[in-house]
Amino acid sequence: MKKILGAALTLVLCAFPTLAQDWSRWQSTGWPQWLGPDRNGISPETGLFGDEPSFTESWRVQGGKGFSGLSVVGDRIYTMYIHSGDEYAVCLDASNGEVLWRTRTDGMLMERQGGDGPRATPTVDDGMVYVSSAYGKLYALDSQTGSPKWSHDLVSEFGSKKPRWGFCPSPLVAGDLVLIEAGGTGGHSLIAFDKISGDVAWKTGRDKLGYSSPITTTIGQTHQAVFFTGNGLIAVTPQHGQVLWKHPWTTRHNVNAATPVFIPPNRFFISSGYGTGASVVEVSATDRGYSAKEIWRNKEMENHFATSIYYEGHLYGFDGSILKCLDAETGAEKWKTRGYGKGTLIVADGHLVLLGERGNLGLAKATPEGFVEKANTWVFRSKCWTAPALADGRLYLRDDKEIVRIDVVGTAQ
User: Fold this and answer.
1) pTM for this predicted structure
2) Does position 351 have pLDDT exceeding 90, yes or no?
3) Cis ω on the peptide bond leading into residue 248 (within 30° of 0)?
């Protein structure tokens, strides 16, 4: 272990009148990690869109290659991209996009098929930023200065092997620990580090490395960290690494990439591409601990990489390049539509916020009754494989060249 983007351009993006926002209805929050505050892709903010929503571009700045998400805390944005031929963790001023610091994290990953650059999203917690490079280096950085506090090389220290499309899992903070799927040898598949010192707290498992990021949740009285590895679902106690239950799931090339989706009180939705499909798994307490069983399985939703969102009894996500809504109880398709390619999405204020693969930003009501688009405009002209982030009524978007802030304007409902 070692101790260690241009002039402002205002553009109305929808053919709706610009109206004053009812700020008093908002719940101020951040987007501190992969898929937001609860790692489920749902923003708690309300009063955003109303009946006549519109978006105004606030600023646009130069970024760089990569698919790392945008984490937003207070007046700062954290992400990763390629700069001057190397990989960097980057902090931006949320008010204007100005770069506040850059810290080199690795060399440049070049992958012709999947794209170049970093994949993992920074996790911001208690004055620190935890980042993982595409070559498997884990860093704890000071959130104000970018100064490294500790680091680990998962390959040289724990026997991890860079997967075909690079290391993708985003670090997960659970209490006083940082959890990461490492895919290492000798019982180092999953590793937890003390978030202050960087010391190894526990290690477990022999699962192959996948491309998914873990979540935490509580089933019954037991807090669980759930990983979607190259071999399937595995749940452990976050503080000690005790294995609670497993559910096998095989996908070609070990590309289990979408984050597992928790469906209260005790179910998980998982989905993979390459002809694999989707399933809902139910976890139950037994006299010997926990058991997992499959409730349904079909090929109606094959998440290539983008994570689906569970919202009010339904699952919204991309079946390859087709946007779909499924009944979470049965897996039955409710509706489908095209126009976003292999896009990404989040849910906010009862709406789907959609970013298409080729840069179109869309808004639609999150309802199983049908797809009714309320807005759609082009923000980028190159590959977009990074999910939107939303903080204080502002959307933060990126492609492999630029980073943009979009201010939300809409009538109060």
Assistant:
1) 0.92
2) yes
3) no
